[in-house]
């Protein structure tokens, strides 16, 4: 297990001989000149010994700020001015050098007068614009501080462990509203049109959680059972679209109150939709901010997948109010404590609120599968990832921290059982409230309630990257039981040889199994390389599935015998759990890709066993597998023709059943399933006359009259537009694009951006890319359109990659200063759809010649994945899939 001193070594931190206790911050923005004045008084305690060098110096974080003056006042009232102020742009710090030394073992108040820029980069204190319903340009000024941008708004110790309280005052135009983490405490008119608004002092918290926003808003409100007032704000005129997020918020807050046994600690909770926003949402304590599409739900038009997205985002951010805000990781290397736990908890609360969403079944495809996809690469990283310079953390807001993190939390819950799991969390919350923790503290909380070796078991999952492949070495089928000999080894996505330093990797694996009789009660913990397990059977020809419920982030390799029993259990629906049915097929796909472990022929045969499958979650997985094969096989026309027929034979019967038409009594997942099926039609059947006609009829009727929601329900809108555009020309393209300008619903605009790239004509694909960077599309949105071009097929990916190379300078100018996740998205959307070794080389070379230091990790992962897909193609080509007889034998 990691010891503390090696964890701490190498962290670049500010010196801790002065420690902020309270920030009293006043901000006066100029919403016309896009600047702001800042005045901060920081109450600091000082340590009892400083070095000589430190005795008259204070260094704080600061970025893109200018300083007018600084001074400190001692306890006895002496005022000492700063003689020199040094800004270090590279380290994003400012150092004040005073004319006299700082008193030791005491407290001082440091007062700094500074100026900043109200930027348009969606980071720090920034501005966003939108057009109101009368066509006027409106501004919202708001903040986004995580991970390292509080320092763009005021000088501070911008480290998660430097918790302090915050007293904020905003001086703003009197006709605008403003909110912060805490309720308003005082409002004074400064002159005719400005007010000075103060907020109550916050509890002790980390700087990245401070927030405020200023603008014109409408809101809806409700009280939770525990008496917390939740208000949900949107740009004026959209209050009705806030209701769903409010309902989710009320339910989630009450759920977490019960779950943690610690009440939500603040007097209120506001949630605000911000017109321009880099991420999906941000959990600022008491003031959660959202991208418009991730909070607003138009009750007349929203799709079920949009509702589910909003619900999970709301639940995720509310979970952070405890996990992250009340108790915070000490340093960014434990970011997963925030994001992994919230990724688990979003499903918990969404499931409590809407059991019919089947969040836990969906977890397997949404989280577990995404985690394993990334974690099979050599360019992955451990959940607990060393972070030296804080900026490195920006690259680990990824599927490892979120999805693998969430998956290991779900696994430990399966091992401990809900009661101990919950009790441990409750104790942890109480013990560390308003403080900081590291991963081990969480393990210990569970260890104490369960008496199980949690830290030992979990270290193998969070301290080493990668995950195990569990292989069945031997099997002995008897009348009433089967004895299995199991072996674990490190799974690599492309089947390459295990690097020498990885041969000894071991995980502590809970072995959970199921048979026709259901899930076995007994759980074995496998700690060694091999293990033997005995599983009771109902009969000699029963089936056995390992990793029951897909509770463990690993893959399983079966023998042909076991696989054929399992395949039958899928076909006959004897395997009842959709998590198990989908787990089986996504594992199989990954094993074929990793070459040694399963043949392409067996995969296709297994797939054909899903021909009567009707479950939405299983189809999410099937659609990943079918789509993945499509992408790779599109490079080989001969196989592709046969494969396409095969895919059609799987897809068409269910399309026939669910149809295109929404029905009044559709279940939540039925609507989502319809979206998946029409999207598969788009991939495999868009040349069918009847499909084209149906898409054309529906698109045209809708574009003619967008209030006619029933002719084109939102759950199928993107794929229907895609089919329409694919088979259409300029006229159809213009009609869809015109809708972007006609609607004032951002979710609908996103639909257009996600569709446009499907237009077949190359000129139109280029036109889409030109449009995105013309300045007309918000920075936060243009990766959607780039993705729609690159994923539109072979031509599309060539065009989007060329476009990126031709315009990378401009893209860098536009995005380089925003959150790096936006550039990540642009790079992956532009270049990520290839599947050949040559392209992987070409792309690697391009980024070597044109370095993107903040996106290096993403680029390495993208190209490694591409190489794996390139190898995959050769595996498929060398198999019987290239023989027509194989396909006709199915
Ligand atoms: N803390 C993050 C927001 C964030 C992300 C800040 C990256 C800085 C850098 C927030 O809690 C979050 O995880 N948001 C997700 C939504 C969630 C449902 C997965 C997002 O923005 O996509
Ligand atoms: Zn989060």
From TrEMBL:
Q: Name one GO biological process term.
A: peptide catabolic process
One GO cellular component assignment for this chain's record is: cytoplasm
Domain ERAP1-like C-terminal stretches: 543-867
Top EC class for this record: hydrolase
Could you say which residues bind Zn(2+) here?
316, 320, 339
Which keywords does UniProt give here? Aminopeptidase, Hydrolase, Metal-binding, Metalloprotease, Protease, Zinc
Listed EC numbers: 3.4.11.-
Q: Does the keyword RNA-binding apply?
A: no
Q: Where is the active site?
A: 317
- Cite the GO molecular-function annotations of the record: metalloaminopeptidase activity; peptide binding; zinc ion binding
Q: Where is this site: Transition state stabilizer?
A: 402
Domain named Peptidase M1 membrane alanine aminopeptidase is located at 244-461
Q: What is written in the cofactor note of this entry?
A: Binds 1 zinc ion per subunit.
Q: Give the domain of life.
A: Eukaryota
Per UniProt, residues of the Aminopeptidase N-like N-terminal domain are 19-209
Cofactor field? Zn(2+)
Tell me where the signal peptide lies. Answer: none
Q: Which family does it belong to?
A: Belongs to the peptidase M1 family.
Report the protein name in the record.
Answer: Aminopeptidase
């Amino acid at each position: 297990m990691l010891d503390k001193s090696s964890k701490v070594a190498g962290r670049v931190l500010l010196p801790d001989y002065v420690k902020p206790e309270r920030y009293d911050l006043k901000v006066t923005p100029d919403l016309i000149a896009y600047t702001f004045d800042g005045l901060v008084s920081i109450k600091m305690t000082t340590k009892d010994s400083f070095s000589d060098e430190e005795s008259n110096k204070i260094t704080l974080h600061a970025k893109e700020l200018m300083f007018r003056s600084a001074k400190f006042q001692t306890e006895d009232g002496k005022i000492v001015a700063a003689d020199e102020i040094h800004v270090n742009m590279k380290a994003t710090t400012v150092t004040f050098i005073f004319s006299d030394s700082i008193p030791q073992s005491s407290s001082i108040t440091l007062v700094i007068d500074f100026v900043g820029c109200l930027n348009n980069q969606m980071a720090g204190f920034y501005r966003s614009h939108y057009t109101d319903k009368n066509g006027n340009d409106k501004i919202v000024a708001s903040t986004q501080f995580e991970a390292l941008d509080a320092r763009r708004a005021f000088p501070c110790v911008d480290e998660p462990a430097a918790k302090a309280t915050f007293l904020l005052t905003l001086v703003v135009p009197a006709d605008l509203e403003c909110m912060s983490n805490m309720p308003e405490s005082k409002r004074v008119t400064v002159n005719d049109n400005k007010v000075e608004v103060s907020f109550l002092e916050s509890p002790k918290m980390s700087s990245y959680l401070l927030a405020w926003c200023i603008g014109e808003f409408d809101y809806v409100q409700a009280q939770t059972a525990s008496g917390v007032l939740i208000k949900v704000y949107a740009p004026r005129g959209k209050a009705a679209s806030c209701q769903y997020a409010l309902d989710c918020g009320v339910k989630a807050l009450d759920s977490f109150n019960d779950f943690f046994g610690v009440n939500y600690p603040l007097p209120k909770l506001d949630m605000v939709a911000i017109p321009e926003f880099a991420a999906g949402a941000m959990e600022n304590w008491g003031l959660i901010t959202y991208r418009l599409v991730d909070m607003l739900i138009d009750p007349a038009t929203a799709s079920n997948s949009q509702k589910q997205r909003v619900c999970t985002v709301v639940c995720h951010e509310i979970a952070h109010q405890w996990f992250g805000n009340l108790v915070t990781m000490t340093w960014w290397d434990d970011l997963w404590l925030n994001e992994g736990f919230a990724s688990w908890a979003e499903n918990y609360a969404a499931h409590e609120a809407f059991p019919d969403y089947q969040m836990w079944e969906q977890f397997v495809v949404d989280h577990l599968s995404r985690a394993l996809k990334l974690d099979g690469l050599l360019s992955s990283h451990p959940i607990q990832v060393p972070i030296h310079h804080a900026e490195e953390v920006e690259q680990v807001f990824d599927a490892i921290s979120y999805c693998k993190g969430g998956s290991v939390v779900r696994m430990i819950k399966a091992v401990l059982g809900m009661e101990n799991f919950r009790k441990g969390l409750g104790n942890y919350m109480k013990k560390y409230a308003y403080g900081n923790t590291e991963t081990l503290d969480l393990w210990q909380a569970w260890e104490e309630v369960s008496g199980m070796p949690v830290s030992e078991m979990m270290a193998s999952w969070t301290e080493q990257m990668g995950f195990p492949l569990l292989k069945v070495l031997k099997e002995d089928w008897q009348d009433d039981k089967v004895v299995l000999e199991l072996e674990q080894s490190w799974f690599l996505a492309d089947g390459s040889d295990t690097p020498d330093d990885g041969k000894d990797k071991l995980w502590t694996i809970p072995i959970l199994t199921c048979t026709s009789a259901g899930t076995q009660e007994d759980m074995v913990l496998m700690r060694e390389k091999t293990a033997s397990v005995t599983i009771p059977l109902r009969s000699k020809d029963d089936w056995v599935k390992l990793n029951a419920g897909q509770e463990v982030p690993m893959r399983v390799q079966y023998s042909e015998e076991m696989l054929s029993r399992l395949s039958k259990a899928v076909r006959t629906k004897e395997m009842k759990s959709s998590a198990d049915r989908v787990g089986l097929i996504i594992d199989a796909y990954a094993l074929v890709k990793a070459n040694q472990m399963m043949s392409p022929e067996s995969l296709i045969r297994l797939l054909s066993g899903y021909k009567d499958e009707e479950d939405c979650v299983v189809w999410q997985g099937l659609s990943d597998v079918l789509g993945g094969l499509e992408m790779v096989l599109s490079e080989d026309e001969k196989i592709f023709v046969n494969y396409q027929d095969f895919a059609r034979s799987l897809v068409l019967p269910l399309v026939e059943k669910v149809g295109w038409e929404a029905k009044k009594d559709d279940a939540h997942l039925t609507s989502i399933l319809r979206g998946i099926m029409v999207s598969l039609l788009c991939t495999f059947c868009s040349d069918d006359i009847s499909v084209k006609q149906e898409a054309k009829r529906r698109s045209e009727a809708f574009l003619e009259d967008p209030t006619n929601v029933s002719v084109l329900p939102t759950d199928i809108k993107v794929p229907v537009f895609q089919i329409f555009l694919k088979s259409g020309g300029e006229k159809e393209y213009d009609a869809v694009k015109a809708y972007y300008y006609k609607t004032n619903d951002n979710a609908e605009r996103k639909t257009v951006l996600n569709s446009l790239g499907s237009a077949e004509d190359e000129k139109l694909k280029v036109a889409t890319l030109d449009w995105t960077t013309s300045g007309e599309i918000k920075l936060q949105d243009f990766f959607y359109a780039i993705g729609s071009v690159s994923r539109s097929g072979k031509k599309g990916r060539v065009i989007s990659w060329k476009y990126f190379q031709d315009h990378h300078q401009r893209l860098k100018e536009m995005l380089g200063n925003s959150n790096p996740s936006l550039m990540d998205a642009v790079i992956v959307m532009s270049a990520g759809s290839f599947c050949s070794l040559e392209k992987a080389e070409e792309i690697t070379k391009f980024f070597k010649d044109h370095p993107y230091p903040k996106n290096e990790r993403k680029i390495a992962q993208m190209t490694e994945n591409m190489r794996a897909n390139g190898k995959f193609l050769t595996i498929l080509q060398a198999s019987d899939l290239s023989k027509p007889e194989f396909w006709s034998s199915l």
